[in-house]
Give the backbone structure.
Amino acid sequence: MENTIIVTGGAGFIGSNFILQSIERDSTSIVNLDKLTYAGNLRNLEAVANERRYEFVHGDIADRTLVRRLLERRKPPAIVHFAAESHVDRSIRGPDDFIRTNVDGTFALLEEVRAYWGNLAGQERIDFRFLHVSTDEVYGSLGPEDPPFSETTPYSPNSPYAASKAASDHFVRAYHHTYGLPVLTTNCSNNYGRFQFPEKLIPLMILNARDGKPLPVYGDGQNVRDWLYVEDHCEAIAAVLARGTVGQTYNIGGWNERRNIDIVETVCDLVDEIAVPLGAPRRTLITFVKDRPGHDRRYAMDATKIERELGWRPRETFESGIRKTVRWYLENEEWVRDVTSGSYRQWIETHYSS
Ligand code: NAD
Ligand code: DAU
């Protein structure tokens, strides 16, 4: 068997960081299966596009024939499954694609992987892994004094996005329990870093602040998220893939709870420092807008298990990570111009005008 893993959704934010990191770290070859939705961007992978150990396959995880042929052709020892619709606000406006990809797509993938794995024998069958990348949002919302989510916190998804991810997690679990498929699941908190599509809080705020546009903070801005630098998340996934116990789930987080308003103020101050100054501090652009329906108040991850069992802890501090991130968005104008044309503008106009 070749040392070639299949990554789904590798043209997105986290998947592309994962591919670049993996190719740089060791001799792994990677096949990236991605549908290239609005969130998929092959520019993220320019550095490896001509690399012998990298192959891009344009396609849908729900296309079972395509997935079957790919598995037969490349005979991977592992799949890392990132592909998903990932934006909560879009799931509120139209959940269909979330069911199609996150639930039906994951199910289709699992069925094909189960058939492929069923035909493996000996050590190859024992060593095979299906790693499912999921989110802390499946656990619901915490009160201010609640302990952070652990791997045993009951699922309580609140948005259509979270419900679709919870459904996929349950299918992955069931395929292990029922069929013995060697699965691993990771549930991670909010990521930030290069290549994140600017519909999400941090890149949206960086670009609006750069351009002197209003900074739309939902509700009272007191919602709390646990922020993790994307490269730390990718290292955690690699650790789980290499050393995780089959059938287990691992919570991944930054030990870094912040209120949204504090994040936005930090971004304003960094953009003031690095970009061309405006007439007034960028904090004056902060505008409180109508809250997200069903907006979860607080997320926080207890990442003790992955540290204890696999020795992973985040390496980047929030202060250095957010500085790098702001700088990256300000220095990569072409990337930004590319992703903020066309359908992106339409999303921003529709979403923030109502
Ligand atoms: P993203 O939206 O940036 O990228 C998703 C990628 O999946 C895109 O390249 C897209 O083209 C591809 N894709 C979508 N539907 C597909 C389909 N049917 N077939 C093949 N490819 C398809 O997402 P992201 O932020 O990189 O998140 C990746 C994964 O990590 C998701 O499963 C998400 O739920 C999970 N996650 C994200 C975060 C976060 O903060 N961004 C945190 C925890 C977990
Ligand atoms: O927690 C992990 C999840 O983090 C991932 O599973 C999701 O894929 C990812 O999108 C992210 O979900 P969030 O909803 O937390 O991320 P988002 O960047 O959309 O919003 C972060 C917080 O900022 C949230 O409380 C809503 C708020 N917000 C967001 C936007 C886009 C604003 O106040 N204004 C905004 O314009």
In short: The first strand starts at residue 4 and ends at 8. The pocket of DAU (ligand 2) is lined by residues 86-88, 135-137, 189-190, 200-201, 204, 216-218, 223, 225, 260, 292, 299 (CB under 6 Å). Residues 4-192+228-256+295-316 form a domain with the Rossmann fold fold (CATH 3.40.50.720). The chain has a mean pLDDT of 97.
